[in-house]
Fold these 2 entries.
Entry 1:
Amino acid sequence: MNNKLIVTLPVTLLCSFMLYSCGSSVDSTDTTNSTAALAGNWSFHSLRSGVSPRWRYGNDQIDANGNATRINITRSSNNQDIGEAYTLSVDTNNTILKSGVDTYHGTLSNDDLIVNTRSRNSGSAYRLQFLQKQSDNYSLSDLQGDWHFHTLSSGSTNDWRHGEEQIDASGNVTRVSVVNSDNSVIVGGDYTLGIDAQGNITRTDVASYHGSISDDKTLMINTRSKESGTTFRIKILQKKGGSFTTADLAGTWVFHNLVSGAGASWTYGVDTIDANGIVINTSRFNNSGDTTTRAGIQTLTLDANGVIRRSDSPSYHGVMSADKNYMIVTTDAGAGAYRLKVFQRRN
């Protein structure tokens, strides 16, 4: 956060902000040497809402002390300036902080997925970023399977989509179903993907498309431009698998979300969910420094295929990962506002 933003914050809000983002995050735990879990090569994709919406993707190399070196970056503006090296730290709850960036907050899952939010442009732009630890042994057949997907778009058009796709061993993608935020269900045409040994995914008919796949080959994330480069989209695909019941929701979950369109923003916090799907918001922090938790409770259901619904929100649609450690959700966030939310299991 820059000095201009800090000056405008009330004293009580600034103190709260510093408590949450400069040492303990949501849960007041001390930093430990679990930072070593960050060591490796990471592929990242991010989406920005608010002022100057855009996408980014690239690769970072992080050592066991959290020192990160940017290998490459591509932005939707075609700017490829890699910027400066940076340093991350991880505490006992796998909360990630970035040295010198007060608004940065992330969470590490299973040592191979990082999700984080932060502000840019003096607090007027909002970013959600995914980092996946990479190996170098990928092949086209790794894309094969049945996949759930969720997308969020920011820019000239703001919306979400979710649906299902099938991919064969040659990278040919068949769209099975699509639900759009305007309630249309146009499936669209099929397409073909390619992949290299490092897990970089391309689409033959969309030059701006770039994706990556996780080292366990169950999660794909990609970004692309639409509408002549004025709309920017991030897409998360989860491989189908496993059997689920609502009781699988039980636990403590860290969440990060990004809103595009009206009221663009980011939020992170902690939700506690019981075996009946009842959600209590334990803590919450947003880009304006508000730490007010949500009033009341919500109730979620989880069907046998891992699809999540919320009883009081018809637009709410999520999917739990096959290992039951993270959930991806899209939902309306008010009139003209659209949300992508990621839950990562703490226990």
Entry 2:
Amino acid sequence: MSAWLGSAMIAIALAALGGVLFGRQPARRGRLAGLVLLATLVGVLILAGCGGPSPVPTPKPTTVGEPLPVQTSPLRSPLAEPEAGATRLPVTGRIAFHSELSGNFDIWVMNADGSDPVQLTTHPARDIEPDWSPDGQYIVFASQRDDPENLQLYIMRADGSEQRRVFPEVQPWDNWAPSWSPDGRRIAFQTNRDVRNTGFDLYTVRPDGTDERPLIVAPANQYHVDWSPDGRRIVYVSDEDGDGEIWVANADGTNPIRLTDNYAEEAWPRWSPDGRWILFQSTRDGLWRLYIMRPDGRDVQAVSLTGLGHDEMGTWSPDGQYIAYTSNRANNDWEIYIKPVRENIWQRLTFNFPRIQDRFPSWTR
């Protein structure tokens, strides 16, 4: 429309110009000359405006009741928006774990599908790393409640009652990372009590605190011990060559054999309920990942996904079909997950925000 008007003004100017050049009356020719100048100026200005940028239309105002654009919060619970690959798994049993939801680390239990979480310990000191007794009636864990400088071993019933220290006296060293033997008669743990060694060694003790015995005492650190289902062997980690590697030995600590030998870190080995596999974590692919291997170190297979975050502290379901583990794949929050051993699907069990750690799962029937 503006271009048409500019062109019309130019045409008027040209017509008037003819009157100026050929008109017979001098006064009329003077008035037409003024008209030529004015029409030409207006026409040029209109056409020049047509070549500029088009005006930006005014945004439509939001009417009453019209939804505003969605703003996604990094703390939005995946319960409202499930993660890709997540699913609901048909699992049973109970999972114990430690969580700092209360403000410091305490022991919690929940159903294996994540429902009905219950806090068992409420002491202001740290309570960490629970492990079930074979019959599911008791939980052993480590705590600083009697010594802020050192962790001690404690036992309680599965409902949190009758909490007591394993050793009669508070010991001036760390005792932690407990693992209950399959027959329920002994508890293996790591400790730095041996003056001959500057690192951690493995010991065992009866649940009543008697008959303490050294299990693996060697240079460097020995840690993360677990029993085979038949109670005849143990699996553990040693860093005597500079990084953590997985070893097996007889239940009395004799005949140690190294299963892994690489430049990566290996940790948290756990024997499968049928004794055919060992679950462990490794940095061989960059981040911490979960793997399984045969008890002789053969047939290593990855069981957790890559590119999502660290997957750590795996433990088996009682039937050996699933694993529970800790991962920081969701906004760097350490939460508890479960997955089938051989499928790339999972279910997230805890949703505590922000930056609240839920770690170290232990699964019982």
